[in-house]
């Protein structure tokens, strides 16, 4: 998260969020993640350790825990109607299983060190919700942007080449989203779709 980064710049392992911007906009989660990585890097250097860090974006896919986290609530609030509008913003997404595989690959490669961006896709929120609606048309997902009339924010370019070089193949976002929603349904966070009686009979 850096408002001064050009939308044409390629996001890679050399890029960091703007700490002051995150703090001033109340994104303390991002601040905490930055401080944790900086502290770990400094401590590793002091102790003579070689540190490798996997840096995931917003994580989609099935959950192990029962409760919602930030990423799963990001999806659920649009499907439950809690969010009547969406922001004119872009976000990066990755699959939770890809994050797990990335950690294994980095651990198993003796030459792995430094930062590894774990990003599978970058979408504008409108396109994210369109994909969600195409997969689950039974939910009433908002089509209203908070910034109606303003130019649409441009998705930024990114590089996940370092993880690809280690052998990671990223899961398509469509698959991740589908499994996110079906998991939320199974855990009771989303209502199951109601199939009309006539349609049920057609299945018999």
TrEMBL record:
It comes from the Eukaryota. SUPFAM superfamilies: NAD(P)-binding Rossmann-fold domains. GO terms for biological process: lignin biosynthetic process. Pfam families: Epimerase (PF01370). GO terms for molecular function: oxidoreductase activity, acting on the CH-OH group of donors, NAD or NADP as acceptor. InterPro entries: Epimerase_deHydtase, NAD(P)-bd_dom_sf, NAD(P)_dehydrat-like. Keywords: Oxidoreductase. Residues 22-113 form the NAD-dependent epimerase/dehydratase domain. PANTHER family: CINNAMOYL-COA REDUCTASE 1, NAD DEPENDENT EPIMERASE/DEHYDRATASE. This is NAD-dependent epimerase/dehydratase domain-containing protein. It comes from Aegilops tauschii subsp. strangulata.
């Amino acid at each position: 998260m850096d408002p001064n980064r050009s939308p044409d710049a390629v996001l890679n392992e050399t890029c960091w969020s703007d700490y002051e911007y995150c703090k001033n906009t109340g994104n303390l989660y991002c601040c905490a993640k930055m401080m944790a990585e900086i502290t770990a890097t400094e401590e590793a250097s002091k102790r003579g350790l070689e540190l490798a860090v996997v840096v995931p974006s917003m994580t989609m896919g099935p959950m192990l825990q029962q409760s919602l986290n930030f990423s799963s609530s990001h999806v659920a609030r649009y499907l439950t109607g809690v969010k009547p509008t969406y922001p004119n913003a872009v976000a990066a997404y990755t699959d939770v299983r890809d994050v797990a595989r990335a950690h294994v690959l980095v651990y198993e490669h003796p030459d792995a060190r430094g930062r590894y961006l774990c990003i599978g896709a970058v979408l504008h929120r409108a396109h994210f919700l369109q994909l969600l609606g195409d997969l689950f048309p039974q939910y009433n997902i908002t089509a209203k942007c908070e910034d109606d009339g303003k130019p649409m924010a441009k998705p930024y370019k990114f590089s996940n080449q370092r993880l690809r070089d280690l052998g990671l193949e990223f899961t398509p976002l469509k698959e991740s989203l589908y499994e996110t929603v079906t998991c939320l349904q199974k855990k009771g966070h989303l209502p199951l779709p109601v199939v009309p009686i006539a349609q049920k009979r057609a299945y018999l």
